[in-house]
Structure formats: C-alpha cells, structure tokens
Specification:
This protein has helices spanning 85-104, 113-134, 136-139; strands at 8-14, 25-29, 32-37, 42-47, 50-58, 61-62, 66-70, 74-82, 142-151. By secondary structure, the protein is of the alpha+beta class. The protein folds into two domains: 8-82 and 141-151, Sandwich (Immunoglobulin-like), CATH 2.60.40; 85-134, no CATH class. The strands form two sheets. Strands 2, 3, 5, 6 and 7 form a five-stranded antiparallel sheet that branches. A hairpin with a 2-residue loop joins β2 and β3 (32-37). The chain is elongated, with a radius of gyration of 22 Å. Mean pLDDT is 71; it is low at 149-153.
Length: 153
C-alpha cells in the first residue's frame, strides 16, 4: 500500500428483496464504519489498493468478514442480501410451540377452560410481538453473496 487514498473503490450493491426494503445497512471496511447503504442504492467507498476486510451490519447482526483484493484504478463490487424471513418465522413458531406446551400449560390458576384459551392466545400473541420487535436484527443473517471484479469506467 502506498498510502494514497481513493485510487481504488469498493462498491456495495444490495440484492433486491421485499422483506428488507427500507432497511439501511452499515458498511465496515477494515473494521471501521465508512458509511451506509440503503434500499435500491449502491455506494462506492474509496480505499487504498491492497487487501481489505469488509463486512455489513444491521442492528445486532453482521455478515462474515471477507477479504477483498482492491487493485489500483479498479472497483471491487460486492452484492449482499439478508436471509429469508421464513427461517426466522420457523424459529419463532417452534419456540411458541415449546412455550405453550411446556411453560403455559401447567399454570391454570383456577381459570375455566374457555377463558384459559383466551389468556393463552393473548400470552402467545404478546410474546410473538415482543420477540418480533426485539430479535429480528439478531436473527437476520447477512451474507455477501457475490464478489466480482470490474474495471472502473
């Protein structure tokens, strides 16, 4: 590395996904935040020629760090995406099943069966709301799916 900044670029493109519209991702190069990339945008960041550790973050979740070789006068393009929410939904549904069968069921508190179902439904709904508002970023897995080299024109 010769110490001159901006002789090469790293470009981040977000894969089009319905469930991650409106989400802003934080971009880290060499473990330093260099900017954000939003929906339907791509951003280029100037770097020194050489190897760089690159990652993307959203909330508590981050992608694996990958090493990108950046050559003088070239742009390295990275396409990234989140996992599908189906995986997250299955985890939440599995947890709800365990919770209702093993934790809520033994506690009847002397309530009649007809009313107990409503209390269980409310408890399940409340728990789903809490989990879906607190944990989605922790459960999202961000992956840089396709590094490719291009000449900057």
């Amino acid at each position: 590395m010769d110490g001159s900044i901006g002789q090469s670029m790293i470009k981040f493109e977000k894969k089009e996904q319905f469930w991650s519209k409106g989400v802003t991702f934080k971009v880290y190069i060499d473990q330093k935040k260099v900017g954000n990339v939003g929906t339907n945008t791509s951003e280029e960041f100037p770097v020194e020629p050489g190897q760089h550790k690159v990652s993307i973050r959203i909330g508590w979740s981050k992608s694996n760090e990958i090493i990108v070789q950046s050559d003088f006068g070239k742009t390295s393009t990275l396409i990234y995406a989140c996992n599908e929410p189906v995986i997250n939904s299955l985890i939440i549904v599995g947890f709800m099943q365990f919770f209702t069968r093993n934790i809520l069921k033994p506690f009847h508190l002397g309530i009649r069966m007809e009313e107990r179902i409503d209390i269980y439904s409310f408890g399940i709904f409340a728990l789903i709301v809490v989990i879906s508002s607190i944990l989605p970023s922790a459960m999202a897995y961000i992956k840089i799916i396709e590094p490719k080299e291009q000449n900057k024109e």
